[in-house]
Write a structure and sequence with these properties.
The chain is mainly α. Helix content is about 50%, strand content about 5%.
Length: about 130
């Protein structure tokens, strides 16, 4: 099953063999950044190894081991990078809303309902008064 965040992650259509990762909103937690070079490596492994494993639990375990063995393709986002990401994204959206609609922005609607107290404190510093 595919959704818009899959398309965003892969910059296009998701293909069979691409890894699936748990999703959270951009404002929820720092998360990980994945280098694009990892996707074809995982896709090849999927078709060569994982696709042949019938047991779903075993397939997931083997896939996770492969991901852990290739940790050099993953960057754990720092708290500072997280704050910069939220600040830049929020201020740009606020600027556009105020420019195009003429309305002051002081509220934030949490995407997907994934509330984060770290995100809340960052947004409060930026002038958000209601969630």
């Amino acid at each position: 099953e595919e959704d818009c965040t899959d398309t965003y992650l892969y910059r296009g259509r998701v293909k069979e063999g691409y890894p699936k990762f748990r999703k959270r909103g951009e404002y929820t937690l720092p998360g990980f950044q994945i280098q694009e070079e990892f996707f074809p490596i995982f896709e090849e492994y999927y078709h060569r190894v994982l696709k042949t494993i019938e047991n779903e639990k075993k397939r997931r375990e083997e896939g996770q081991k492969f991901i852990e063995k290739h940790s050099e393709y993953f960057h754990k986002v720092t708290e500072q990078e997280f704050e910069i990401r939220i600040t830049e994204d929020y201020l740009e959206n606020k600027r556009q809303i105020e420019a195009h609609l003429g309305n002051e922005v002081s509220c934030f609607c949490w995407p997907w309902g994934h509330r984060s107290w770290n995100g809340v404190s960052i947004l409060e510093k930026l002038g958000v008064r209601a969630f």
